[in-house]
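Fig. S4 source data, part A: sequence.
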Amino acid sequence: MGRPLRIEYPGAFYHVTSRGNERRDIFLTQKNYERMIGYLESATERYGAQIHCFCLMSNHYHLLLETPRGNLRQILHHLNTSYTNYFNAKTGRAGHLFQGRYRAILVDKDHYAMELSRYIHLNPVRAQMVKDPLLYPWSSYKDYAGEKTGWDWVKTEWILSQISRNEKRARKGYRKFIGEVKGRAVRDPLEHVVSSAILGSEEFVDWVRERRVEKRAYHRDIPSLRQLSKWPSLLSIERETENLFGKRADESRRVALYLSHRLSGESLNEIGRYFGGIGPSAVSQNTRRLQERLKGDAKLSEKVNQLKRILSG
């Protein structure tokens, strides 16, 4: 199986799941749960993690977290390694405790944070462990409902602010938001994940694809990256531009260079070599000049936009 795609940047928002190896229990006693909660707290202190929601189940856990430092790997390494070392020492076992790699879905929080928080907090209800999530001690729901837990590091403010700026009304509204689906099947919001990696609007997915996914040489090792990437090749850019502007036209070369810089994901050196060995500064200069022309040339702008649509299809 290929490696999962990890998209990391400052301020990224994730839904994270990590399961016990072979789906075995990873929490056996109250002390086990308390120890993991201690590691969640230390992740906020040492690595700047902002944990919006969590739920610890017997054989897995869910987190809704934000990474102001863009350090998801560091945070999850701290959680899973620290807890594995503790659990193995307590139980006299050795080896991996968690099943392979954790699953981290990059989330468009403006569209999905509320829904995901409800999905996470209702885990014990779906598992028929309790009828009311307030009765489950190992999740952040009590913090949202207004009951004191002593877990001041749980960041309830952002999700509650989506309901009301008044804290009392927000907590009441959140309890209603949870209660309105009790006894009914809640659709899994993760059904809408794109390329096993991103949950968000079409605009958010496009933004991530264009701004946050690095072009890499090992696409074949990461199937979701191959699915997500839409970088056209330099050859396809050159051919499509020649089809529109003509093979020998100077304008064709200028536009092809510009689109290669904007769309291909290739380095300036690679683009320069492809187009006859010009230097990286010449590629950048061509882009700046064409951008200025596009502001005042509606006809040229329409042609360039037409090529973008073709190459992104």
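Fig. S4 source data, part B ends here. Strands lie at 12-19, 50-56, 60-67, 103-107, 198-199.
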